[in-house]
Automatic annotation (TrEMBL):
Function per UniProt: Catalyzes the synthesis of alpha-ribazole-5'-phosphate from nicotinate mononucleotide (NAMN) and 5,6-dimethylbenzimidazole (DMB).
Name of the molecule in the record: Nicotinate-nucleotide--dimethylbenzimidazole phosphoribosyltransferase
Gene designation per UniProt: cobT
Annotated Gene3D superfamilies: 1.10.1610.10, 3.40.50.10210
Main EC class the enzyme belongs to: transferase
The species this protein was found in: Piscinibacter gummiphilus
Amino acid sequence: MAFPVPPIPTTHDAALLQRLRHRIDRKTKPLGALGRLESLALQVGLVLDTDRPVLAAPQLVVFAGDHGIAARGVSAYPTDVTWQMVENFLAGGAAVSVLARQHGLALTVVDAGVNHMFAPRAGLLDRKVAPGTADMLDGPAMTAAQLDQALQSGADVVRGLPGNAVLLGEMGIGNTSSASLLLALLSGEPLDECIGRGTGLDDAGLARKRALLGKVMDRHRATAASPRELMAAVGGFEIAMIAGAALQAASERRLVVVDGFIAGAAVLWASRLAPALLSSCVWAHSSAEAGHRLMTRHLDVVPLLDLGLRLGEGSGAALAWPLVESSVRLLAEMASFESAGVSDKSADKGAGA
Ligand SMILES: Cc1cc2ncn([C@H]3O[C@H](COP(=O)(O)O)[C@@H](O)[C@H]3O)c2cc1C
Ligand SMILES: O=C(O)c1cccnc1
């Protein structure tokens, strides 16, 4: 069945915004002095639909999938790294495992379509659509039915998790290729500028990747027009699942923390189905992957961090999480000028008048 895009409630509540703004402005600090943390707290309040937001049971979900195109050498690493890293996530040894532990994030790994049979265990969800996408130079990466299955699975995964915030990450050797193509096709930016070194291609490798993805784009440009056709043509199972997960999360008024270039491409794509999705999204960091800055500029969003990360996995989302938490705690726990008996500018003026 075709995946029904869930309705996303509006977060444009002028009265709530005014209450939130007032609460922040009455805190014991110069007006606006908490900078981005103020707009972040406002956004969380609007998404959670309250002027007293509380973040509960944040969920970091890593979607993993393999890519047929990877056999053509678009990555600096072999495709086996996808399943090996899934094992590493579950064993607690990957970057995202460490950061999830540090920040109290529940970590779920989803097999969206890895070319490997995993032994079942806690923390791993089997939602395998197929053992990897088809080679998108030969034809579409996935069928329309596989796309719908992936979108639905992403939505179902979120529905089955507790809490009111999800952090979305991915693993899939070759998936910067899909992300670059999605960015180019959806934004109209030149493909070469949307393509980067991924896991670390050298100059010759980057030139090969550009030439190959140019052919992929030529092959699909005429036939794939709608967002769904584009995702089926050049996407990935983990990318489509992230899109479904983000749409479902926003429809449930959960905050969505978007990791780097690949998770960003999934959300860019999903925002074409439901533009309101973007108001639920926090963009965690500016990835060093070429193309991410084009993406964030195109979407007119400003990521929180700029650490030169180019890892994925949800690592940047996990690193941004404490800032989201701080913004909410400041809103909840800081005293106001009134409650703390601190004189503010307007009170001084009043006293002098
Ligand atoms: C050991 C290792 C761990 C990773 N964790 C995330 N990625 C990242 O690199 C991949 C995308 O880059 P490309 O398109 O060049 O293959 C994705 O799996 C992404 O999550 C990793 C890559 C490697 C090698
Ligand atoms: O920003 C990302 O998500 C990214 C960049 C390079 C490689 N893997 C992931």
